[in-house]
Amino acid sequence: MSNFYFAANISNRYKDITEGASPIIDNWPLMGSPLPVLSIAAFYLLFVLQLGPRWMQHRKPFDLQWLLIAYNAAQVLSSLALCIQPLFLGGVGLLFSISCNDAPVVDTDLQLTIWKGTWWYLVLKLVELLDTVFFVLRKKQNQVSFLHVYHHTIMAVFTWGYLKYLPGIQGAFLGVLNTYVHVVMYSYYLIAALGPRYQRFLWWKRYLTTLQLAQFGIMLVYLLLIVSFQCSVPRSLSFFFIGNVAIFLVLFFLLTSFCCLVAAKRCHHIVNVQTGQYLQATNTVDPATNYYQFAWLSHDHRRNSLWFVERYEPNLRDDTFYMVNEESGEYLAVHPHNDRAYILQRNISQWMPVNSFLFRLNEVGKEGEIVNWYKNYSLYATSLGVGGSFVGSNPRCGLDSCRWRFEGYEC
């Protein structure tokens, strides 16, 4: 008998959810059946987790700079156009109201605008799957985290379900809020894609993490209010949405907390692939300045050839790190004037851009370039094997003298 009531309860919940479907929306592209969206999501997961990494395994990363510039610009403009639509139809009060606003029965201009806006929002969620595809094609598989893949997949599927079965004003606030956040995020990505010359305009990147956390927090409060006010949105769906927003919030908080903490110290010999020599910090203080040392290449295995990466604040696209010498505790840096590799005490950085200390590193054990965040220059081993310098777009960087291997040792 209990099984019968359980099955009946499930059936009633399903009926509550599906009875809101609109025949108008059913005739729109992608909306007649869940098969197209589910197929796209399935192929996305297969490519970014299996096919893509396997295909790129023995290939060089694609240079997608101009494609990323166009893509991010299109995302900014599309998101901006989408989130300002309610301003022209007097829907701001309804969208941002914390009281119940059931979907009107008649097809008012506002209702049709909400429906169409939600459909375009679905299209944007599907297009945003390319974010992960670009990571794979650029061989940044470390960026393909569980949170990233889960968020992109679930948002596409959830948006389809919302438009299919809950095409009303109630809940549209969540999409509008997310779209505003995406205007800011993709603006950041656009500036970052323009190259090192524009990095100085990204001083506000540290606030993106706060913006993301605030977004999830506001969404969670809004959904809890919908439940407490006994709105017409099925409670089962409300609790389902609450659970997923809570998952987003917790995972994002844990990820950013981990990224902002100093990673567990694991030292690495940084070995040049061409020469087999180690990046080493000399023990000689330069007499002219009395507070910085040079980074040299050496066959020496002493502790001053051991470095560890200290995680700084995460860029939402590329994790950046301080690279610290284990022996001296000083930081590898790019001198802003002569592009040499120096190590400096962190507390004298006021005369150098902070980004001079930041680098993008490949995964430990993989061969690749060490790229400075400030100038986008690659660490280069001189042909004489006597020093390390940083060079920009230079044919010699295509040689192994710009490629390094990280040999790990516990500190």
UniProtKB/TrEMBL annotation:
Keywords assigned: Fatty acid biosynthesis, Fatty acid metabolism, Lipid biosynthesis, Lipid metabolism, Membrane, Transferase, Transmembrane, Transmembrane helix
Location of this chain's protein in the cell: Membrane
EC number from the UniProt entry: 2.3.1.199
Transmembrane segments: 35-52, 73-98, 118-137, 144-163, 169-195, 207-227, 239-264
Main localization, broad class: membrane
Any single Gene Ontology cellular-component annotation: membrane
Protein name according to UniProt: Elongation of very long chain fatty acids protein
Origin superkingdom: Eukaryota
Molecular function terms, GO-annotated: fatty acid elongase activity
Similarity field: Belongs to the ELO family.
Membrane topology: Multi-pass membrane protein
PROSITE patterns registered for this protein in UniProt: ELO
Catalysed reactions, semicolon-separated: a very-long-chain acyl-CoA + malonyl-CoA + H(+) = a very-long-chain 3-oxoacyl-CoA + CO2 + CoA
